[in-house]
Amino acid sequence: MNNKKAYYITTPIYYVNDVPHIGHAYTTIAADTMARYKRLRGFDVLFTTGTDEHGQKIAKSAENLGIEPIELANRVVLKFRNLWPVLNIKEDDFIRTTEKRHEIVVQKIFNRLYEKGDIYKGEYEGWYCVPCETFWPESQIEGNKCPDCGRPLEKYKEESYFFRMSQYQEKLLQYIEQHPDCIQPESRKNEIVRFIQNGLKDQSVTRIKSSLNWGIDVPFDNQHVVYVWFDALINYLTVAGYGTDDRKFNFYWPEAVHLIGKDILRFHTIIWFTMLMAADIQPPKLVFSHGWWTIEGEKMSKSKGNVIDPYQVAEEFGPDAFRYFLLRELSFGQDGNFSRQLLIQRINYDLANDLGNLLSRTIAMTRIFCQGKIPEIQDKEEEVDRELRTLAGDTVDQVIKNMDTMAFNLALENIWTLVRRTNKYIDQTEPWVLGKDHAKTKRLNHVINYLAESLRIVSILVYPFIPMTAVKMWSQLGIKEEIEQMFIPEDTRWGKIQVGTRVNPGENLFPRIIEIKESEQDKSAQERDIIAKQDKEKVGTKKMDTISIEEFKRLDLRVGKVLSAEDIPGTQKLLKLKVDFKTEERTLVAGIKQYYSPESLINKNIVVIFNLEPATIRGIQSQGMLLAASDQDQVVLLTTEKDVDPGSKIR
Ligand code: MSP
User: Which end of the chain has less Cβ packing within 10 Å, N or C?
Assistant: First the structure.
């Protein structure tokens, strides 16, 4: 291959009986983040995902819809395939278990185990959980309910081939003991070990076609199809080139890391490890099982109607905000709670306030004070400079340490400590004060250089988590190289920013989200006041009550003509307006529903703050704010005394 080290990371392959939800998005985002991170660390990475298309669950769903299973699979697979680019996920391979390349490998492994005497024919008598696709012996169940998901079990008695899993019990325990890090987190590994110690039974690995014929044929007996988990687990070998590309397989397989949810850990350790042992293939290097998300404190379920649709979250909040939230909010092995409010808080505070502001302030100051070019440093560092530089170095070390143990949340915490420290550096060095004194130009240049350098390093560090944002940051900093070609730690060493690079002011990274709930209108207004106050303090105007004419000139006020107005359902105060400004048409969200009917607004001239940072309100991006006078009991729109052209400026 090449002289890079290999890294192979997989997600579970997802069932095609249902559309993607937050659980699917979570593992796949984590795997994508890890893949991007490892590439920055110089690894040759293979990152794969796919769909699990056989088995009774898919067959039943298809039957309920009155279609063939393959039709269902062909339909649903697109929902997964198309989701990944929407979430900025870039897999190297996407496998469907109905592909020929996979069938060949499954049959090969099945044959191998059979020839070895590890698969034998017998009769299965017992219980089966269709949603979990799991066999349950009588001894482990109570009241005909699945011990895992609690749903009713089906009983059957039929001819079946069995895998001699019981024979691998000791070997498996020994293997886990000798490779103590191969199952993580530790607490889950301990559960698995206890389970194995309680005794392994042979595993049924086929279904007779008369009861289920949706699967891969057993190679030497066309009356049977291979059990869906036996089939599905082998996907990890197929995509790595097992039996078709030995060089590829030998390169990647020893480095295999499976990311999975906690519910499928037994399959991925007990059944999978013993299958591999029987086939004389070394088990994967690591199986990491993550926790589950509850939704607003409740278990996610279709019947509760609280299933989170990743397409919708990405559309409303942007894929990077979703990625950031999922990886920042909880430690990867733990369960956690997804809530709209928490997501919005993370966006407003971490992404818009901390990161977005840092970038926009730095770019603005480079433009104002340094003709838009990254300036030179001075000869000597001051204490604040040294602190910032040292923290950046420590941050890189910490991020490496945390990413190596999949502690995504801690790595993000490390990066945000640097982001916040850099914001503080602005407050400490007060570039706007330095800018007033010619004698301080060298110092000012130094400060701006350090700000840009810190952001350059932050961009590389955040790239695996929020790739689209990192690329935007990189481009605003004016850096020409490709961010994905950078290396950690080499390119995150301090002092690599190129003096003279021209910055590119761009859009805000994350518009702040102002979510107005009926009961929270006043609270939200208060929050806006607080944010406005914080912003004021940030630009260093703390002590000013008056504004200068220059500051007033920064306000772009324009007249707009209302083209259309409509109600925003579910709100008491909000209307959505389309407004003509001659050069463009904009959407505005305005809290005037109680005072104006939508029809009464059509063709009215209104006065709008045209250069206000856009905000997303109830999922709608509001591009400006209209002005109105308010006294105690009414709100009255500002308009023009005579008709003027839309787009006219107010001076
Ligand atoms: N097809 C099997 C996996 C075969 S891998 C060889 C399967 N598919 S699945 O579509 O049901 O995938 C579910 C994945 O989503 C699992 O990893 C599961 O843990 C995860 N989640 C399902 N609900 C979840 C949450 N509420 N939260 C987080 N992850 C959850 O299992």
Answer: C
> Is the CB of 241 within 6 Å of ligand 1?
no
Nearest alpha carbon, ligand 1 atom 29: 23
Distance 299 CA to ligand 1 centre (A): 14
Closest protein CA for atom 27 of ligand 1: 292
Q: Provide the 10 A C-beta neighbour count for residue 153.
A: 20
| 478 close to ligand 1 (CB < 6 Angstrom) | no
Q: Is 260 in the pocket of ligand 1 (CB under 6 A)?
A: yes
Question: Residue 98 belongs to a domain with what CATH number?
Answer: 3.40.50.620
Q: Using DSSP, state whether 122 is helix, strand or coil.
A: strand
Q: Which residue in this structure is represented by tokens 């593992």?
A: 27
Q: Are 322 and 217 in contact (CB under 8 A)?
A: no
Query: Which portions of the chain are predicted below pLDDT 70?
Result: 1, 516-545, 548, 632
How much is the pLDDT for 518? 47
Indicate the residue among 246, 275, 290 that finishes a domain: 290
Counting from 1 in the atom list of ligand 1, the atom nearest the Cα of 295 is 26
Rounded to the nearest whole angstrom, what is the distance from the C-alpha of residue 478 to the centroid of ligand 1? 41
Does a structural domain hold residue 134?
yes
Cα–Cα distance measured from residue 337 to residue 308, given in angstroms and rounded to the nearest whole number? 12
**Residue whose CA is closest, atom 10 of ligand 1?**
14
CA distance linking residue 270 with residue 173, whole number of Å: 10
Total number of domains in the chain: 3
Q: What is the tens place of the pLDDT at every residue in 314-338?
A: 999 999 999 999 999 999 999 999 9
Residue 526 lies in a domain: no
Decide: 325 and 316 in contact? Cβ < 8 Å. Answer: no
Identify the domain containing residue 627 by its residue range.
Answer: 548-637
User: What pLDDT does 544 receive?
Assistant: 44
